[in-house]
Specification:
65% of the residues lie in helices and 4% in strands. Helix 1 runs antiparallel to helix 2 and helix 3 packs across helix 4. The chain has four helices and two strands, in the order αααββα. By secondary structure, it is mainly alpha-helical. The chain has one domain. Strands 1-2 form a two-stranded antiparallel sheet. It is globular.
Length: 92
């Protein structure tokens, strides 16, 4: 999945290696268990102080373009996770 890979690269380059490693782990599992990856993405914290607040830097300077690109990718990933969650939900 190119969006997951792109977000991983932005995070690594932007100073968030632990989040990059988390997404890289999801990317590595994608072919063996895509539905579990959807649930993992859906369950990622997205409030204040989480990846949703990440601000990327390049060479010690704020990188607004990279930050916007990351947040667009994270939004797409979150929607992908929600779609999987909704598809897998069972009626009451």
């Amino acid at each position: 999945m190119p969006n997951l890979r792109a977000a991983t690269l932005l995070l690594r380059d932007g100073g968030y290696p632990s989040w990059a490693n988390t997404l890289l782990g999801y990317h590595a599992r994608l072919h063996s268990d895509p539905e579990q990856d959807r649930l993992s993405v859906f369950a990622m914290p997205c409030g204040m102080g989480t990846l949703g607040d990440a601000v990327l830097h390049e060479n010690g300077s704020l990188s607004i373009e990279a930050t916007y690109a990351l947040h667009a990718l994270l939004g797409w990933l979150r929607e992908w996770g929600i779609e999987g969650r909704m598809a897998g939900s069972k009626p009451l």
